[in-house]
Write a structure and sequence with these properties.
Elements: H1 20-29, E1 38-47, E2 50-59, E3 70-75, E4 84-86, H2 88-96, E5 100-101, H3 103-123
Parallel strand pairs: 1-5
Antiparallel strand pairs: 1-2, 2-3, 3-4
């Protein structure tokens, strides 16, 4: 029961409303099945003035350094040259399932794909 004395419906089975008022209440309080908004973004690690980042998949409603679903790679802005690693297979799987990469993660994925293409051409 909620604070104002009305019952909140928590089951997902259909219920017939006895009147218009009850129908509106059931619509308002019935749980909506929504897809979880998933994001691929960076979580900050390291110490003060020495940051490094993990590339992770997490619920986009979570805080920046909150609990994540899966780690895809890392990014170290303090290194020179290639300062990132990412598992492209996992990233592609998550993007195919609807995960939205942040701008920085998107650019890291593009760079990694380009690097993989040049290595494949060099070996051929």
């Amino acid at each position: 029961m909620s604070r104002n004395g009305t019952y909140i419906r928590t089951a997902l089975m259909p219920v017939r409303a006895r009147n218009e008022r009850e129908r509106r209440r059931l619509i308002i309080f019935s749980p909506q099945k929504t897809d979880m908004p998933v994001a691929i973004r960076l979580t900050r690690q390291g110490t003060k003035d020495r940051p490094y980042y993990k590339i992770v998949v997490l619920d986009s409603r979570k805080r920046r350094d909150g609990r994540y679903i899966e780690q895809l790679g890392s990014y170290d802005p303090m290194k020179e040259g290639v300062n990132y690693t990412i598992d492209l297979e996992k990233a592609d799987k998550w993007i195919a399932n609807g995960a939205q990469p942040s701008e920085t993660v998107g650019s890291i994925i593009r760079k990694t794909r380009k690097q993989a293409e040049t290595e494949a051409q060099a070996q051929a």
